[in-house]
């Protein structure tokens, strides 16, 4: 079957062991206010314009016959004298994409493939086929955990490593910052903890969003339910989160702050029983 991909990184050194091919699925049901991949949000193909190098000639606007609702006619792409405009989102057949990934097998012996997004569970059938077709490699997924339980269970059974986000523990606050409640996410996180599949919990760590004592204590209580102490990576908020929004024709209006030393020390104190690390 076919799926929509917005990027493929062929020699990635993160999101799993060794050298990896990282495949980014297009479309996400969450709207995290700190998201730094706005081109991954829409589940549709879209026009993106690089603002760097634009000479303001207006040719792209002049040629467009449907400025209110893009019909992907691609006239602006052909017209731009600087080649700054492209379609983001490429349709791939799972068989063709798996073949493309497996071409790199000789250099992926200590690594593998990581499926990321967007949200991979939004294209669960496509992901499931890709996991089957790349079974000779180490297969990792990155997920928010938001999706159907049937899909999550199916995907989990074919995955060698799961990176799973635990953004905010309180349901109301989670909805405020991501647009969705976290009940199903926490349910899937518990399933993951008892699945026997290796996993890493990831926390995007953002000052005054989830750095407070209450959130960290609730995280501690949740992690304590795991049969063995979980590994938790804190990803320190990146002040450059808004950099790609102009590319997707969107404005970034949030003003989040990076956690300070006191926030990091608080997390270390409360979560000392777990394998925690901090990444920029
Ligand atoms: S592809 Fe470009 S020219 Fe065509 S409708 Fe979309 S924005 Fe307009
Ligand atoms: S056609 Fe290209 S260079 Fe001209 S305004 Fe549009 S994006 Fe800028």
Provide structural commentary.
The chain has a single domain (2-45, 89-279), classed as TIM Barrel (Alpha-Beta Barrel). It is 28% helix and 22% strand. The protein contains nine helices and eleven strands. With 280 residues, the protein is an alpha/beta fold. The strands form two sheets. The chain has a nine-stranded mixed sheet. It has a two-stranded antiparallel ribbon with strand order 3-4. The model has no long low-confidence stretch (mean pLDDT 96). Helix 3 crosses helix 4 (124-133) and helix 5 (149-156) packs parallel to helix 7. It has helices spanning 59-63, 75-79, 94-102, 124-133, 149-156, 171-178, 183-193, 213-223, 261-270, and strands spanning 2-12, 20-25, 46-49, 85-88, 90-93, 112-116, 138-143, 161-165, 199-205, 231-236, 275-279. It binds iron/sulfur cluster (2 copies).
Count of discrete alpha- or pi-helical segments spanning 4 or more residues: 9
Give the C-level CATH assignment.
Answer: Alpha Beta
Please give the radius of gyration in angstroms.
Answer: 20 Å
Count every beta strand, where a strand is a DSSP E run of 2 or more residues.
11
The order of strands across the largest sheet is: 5-1-2-6-7-8-9-10-11
Ligand inventory reads: iron/sulfur cluster
Shape: globular
Supply the CATH architecture: Alpha-Beta Barrel
Q: Could you list the spans in which at least 5 consecutive residues all have pLDDT below 50?
A: none
Q: How many domains in all? A: 1
State which percent range the strand residues make up: 15-25%
The overall pLDDT average reads 96
| Main sheet: strands, sense, barrel | 9 strands, mixed
Helix content: 25-40%
Quote the CATH topology.
TIM Barrel
The CATH H-level superfamily is Aldolase class I
Order of helices and strands: EEEHHEEHEHEHEHHEHEHE
C-alpha termini separation: 37 Å
Structural class estimated from helices and strands: alpha/beta
